[in-house]
Structure formats: structure tokens, C-alpha cells
């Protein structure tokens, strides 16, 4: 089944130095009368990767952004229940993707309320103290996110990292958007390299960037 790719803020991604690292399309699962297909694209911060490689010789993906459109084909009985099931599977897939990329010791963090309602022309805010209800509406409904703190080893560097993924409703299915970024450098080949790497790690900016990309994707 052909699934349209998620609509990402391509101009922003290009201007900020992101590039496509992976793309995949296929059928996630088929339960007879309903087939669920996906079209996913993964971006990495190539500008950050190249800057760190030039300065330290260490090469790898330091932060990534993922968007996956999940669409239903065929009649959809009890769409609310199916939507919940698909959202849970999407979050499981994101967690699996983190593990495949070398993240470990994943610890679930607070849920964040992320609104996609931009009627006033500016991204809506988030509230870290607000839990999120079910997302069964259109794109203006709050997304239902899951956050993780985790460890990650990249080459000879051990990082503290944070990841966030949100699933929200679309006209024909669900949209998973998320990503991960470093928050601190725990270990490096030597103290000088550790300090150089820490100069590139800006958790507050990385979080703001990720939330902006999540909101801008449809």
C-alpha cells in the first residue's frame, strides 16, 4: 500500500543542517479487513556531526529527528480502539528504534502536553506539569507523548541523552514524530575531548529544536 510521506518542515531542516539518514515504507501489520501501512523518514543533524568530527575525530549521529505516517487501508471498525492500538505500537516502535541505535537504560520521564493548534500563527506552548488525554481528534488536538532519559555510547564517548516521541491523529491514521539528543558527556577518551564535546551539547536548544520540528510536521 502506498503511503504519502509525512510533511516535514523541509526548508528549516535544510537551513539548519539536517539531512535524510534513512527512509522506509511498508505494511506495519495486517489484521484482515484493515491493513496498517507506514512511511517513515529519519533526519540527522549533519552540521553537528561534521563539526564534532572536524574538531575531535569522533564520528557518529549526535541527534536525530524521526517522522512516520501511519495510515489505515480498508474499512476501520471501532476506529478509536484501533487508533489507541496503533498509537501504542508506534511508541513501541520508537523505543525499539532507540535500542537499535545504541540507547540503553531507558527511563520514562514526565509526559508533556504538546498542542498543534497554531491558529494565531505561533506554535502553541507546552506544559511539563500537564498530563495528556487521549488523542483521537484531528491535528489540532494535543499529542500524546512519551519521553525517555537514556545512556548512549557513541564511538568511545558515553552520553546522557533525552528522547521524546508524540503520536497524534490524522485524517486516515496516526502520525509519530520524535527524536533524541545528548544532554551531557559522561565519558570521553580524555578530559580535553570531553570539554570540547560539552561545548557542542546544548540541551535547552536541542529540546526547543525538537519540539519545533514536532509541531511543524504533519
UniProtKB/TrEMBL annotation:
UniProt cross-references to InterPro entries, sorted A to Z = DUF6517
What Pfam families does the record point to? DUF6517
In residue numbers, the region (Disordered) covers 117-146
Here the segments flagged for biased composition (Acidic residues) are 132-141
> What domain of life does the native source organism fall in?
Archaea
| Protein name, as recorded | Uncharacterized protein
Origin species, per record, is Halorarum salinum
Amino acid at each position: 500500500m502506498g503511503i504519502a510521506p509525512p510533511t516535514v518542515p523541509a526548508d528549516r531542516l535544510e537551513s539548519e543542517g539536517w539531512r535524510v539518514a534513512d527512509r522506509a515504507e511498508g505494511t506495519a501489520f495486517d489484521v484482515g479487513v484493515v491493513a496498517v501501512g507506514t512511511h517513515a523518514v529519519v533526519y540527522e543533524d549533519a552540521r553537528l556531526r561534521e563539526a564534532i568530527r572536524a574538531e575531535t575525530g569522533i564520528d557518529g549521529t549526535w541527534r536525530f529527528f524521526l517522522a512516520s505516517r501511519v495510515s489505515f487501508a480498508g474499512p476501520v471498525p471501532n476506529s478509536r480502539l484501533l487508533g489507541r492500538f496503533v498509537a501504542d505500537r508506534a511508541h513501541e516502535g520508537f523505543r525499539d528504534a532507540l535500542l537499535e541505535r545504541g540507547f540503553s537504560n531507558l527511563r520514562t520521564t514526565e509526559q508533556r502536553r504538546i498542542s498543534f493548534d497554531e491558529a494565531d500563527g505561533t506554535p502553541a506552548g507546552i506544559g511539563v506539569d500537564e498530563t495528556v488525554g487521549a488523542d483521537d481528534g484531528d491535528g489540532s488536538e494535543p499529542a500524546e507523548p512519551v519521553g525517555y532519559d537514556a545512556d548512549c555510547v557513541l564511538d568511545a564517548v558515553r552520553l546522557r541523552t533525552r528522547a521524546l516521541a508524540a503520536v497524534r491523529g490524522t485524517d486516515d491514521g496516526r502520525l509519530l514524530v520524535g527524536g533524541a539528543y545528548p544532554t551531557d558527556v559522561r565519558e570521553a577518551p580524555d578530559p580535553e575531548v570531553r570539554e570540547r564535546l560539552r561545548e557542542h551539547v546544548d540541551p535547552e536548544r536541542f529540546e526547543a529544536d525538537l519540539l519545533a520540528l514536532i509541531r511543524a510536521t504533519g
